[in-house]
Design brief:
single chain; alpha/beta; D-Maltodextrin-Binding Protein, domain 2; 2 domains; 10-stranded mixed beta sheet; two-stranded antiparallel sheet; 12 strands
Length: 277
């Protein structure tokens, strides 16, 4: 009798341990370092955990490391801007979609000597070319940052040989970039989030243009399609592509301004998985 009770007790302990272990399951979301600081991210994570019971760990990578992880497929779920999903989705080895987008802002001296605010019909590439041709400085983010790479692409599209003396580089793609533009009374391309956060501190520059061609960052989510090894990653990816996440993103504001603009949901609602509770 004692032996039977002991076996029963051990079985119950194993069951409790198993259930507790299942409840502690988590998934890692890999994001670019810039988006890691967005107040939207913890809201998304909290909503997902509340809906599914799965904890989400954030892996924030600098642009170069982010690109390496993307190239190797070394992630459970990846969320980042301006990803080329076509080849990966065509291979059927990944699932994912474009989810939402953001626009960048041209800022410059309040007196606007290059008359950038009047170039509403110009592309971002042609505006940067115009700034350089008229003899004014343009500040870029570090060349290896996502915003620095974007500026480099825009310059390359212009097919123009830029005056290197007028091409300045800041140490980051936020406060340092705006500070340099403010001190040099130069032009710059900046995210709306960074401008909203640091712009009020800048006394010599102002917002001039946004929503030009080439000034949109599209955020996409991607996950390796492996039902056996990456079930948690696929579930988070589906949730980020679905209506619940889309609704949360579209309602997110900074002040009175809508921060991001959503695309149509591409996945059905994700239900809680009882096996992981």
């Amino acid at each position: 009798m004692k032996k039977r009770c002991l076996c029963l007790l051990l079985a119950l302990l194993c069951l409790v341990t198993l259930v507790a272990g299942c409840g502690n399951k988590s998934v890692t979301l890999t994001v670019s370092e810039g988006f890691a600081h967005s107040p939207l991210l913890p809201q998304l994570i909290s909503a997902y955990t509340q809906a599914t019971g799965v904890e989400v760990e954030i892996e924030a990578l600098e642009y170069a490391d982010f690109e390496k992880a993307l190239a190797k497929g070394d992630f459970e779920v990846l969320l980042g801007a301006n990803l080329d999903l076509s080849d990966r989705l065509a291979s059927a080895e990944f699932m994912g979609a474009d989810v939402f987008y953001d626009t960048l802002v041209f800022v410059g001296p309040k007196r606007d000597p290059a008359s950038v605010k009047y170039l509403k019909d110009y592309s971002a590439s042609d505006i940067i070319k115009h700034i350089n041709m008229t003899g004014f400085a343009f500040v870029s983010a570090p060349p290896t940052s996502s915003l620095g790479i974007r500026a480099g692409i825009l310059k390359a599209r212009s097919a123009y040989e830029f005056d290197a003396d007028l091409c300045l580089y800041a140490s980051d793609q936020g406060q340092a970039l705006l500070t340099m533009a403010n001190q040099q009374q130069a032009y710059a391309l900046i995210s709306r989030a960074a401008w909203k956060e640091y712009g009020p501190q800048m006394t010599n520059i102002t917002s001039l243009l946004d929503s030009q061609d080439g000034m949109t960052d599209t955020f996409s989510v991607l996950s390796p399609f492996d039902p056996k090894k990456n079930k948690q990653g696929q579930q988070l990816c589906s949730w980020l592509m679905g209506q619940d996440a889309i609704s949360l993103i579209s309602q997110y504001k900074e002040g009175d301004e809508q921060r991001f603009f959503t695309l149509a949901p591409t996945a059905p609602p994700v239900q809680p998985d009882d096996s992981i509770r």
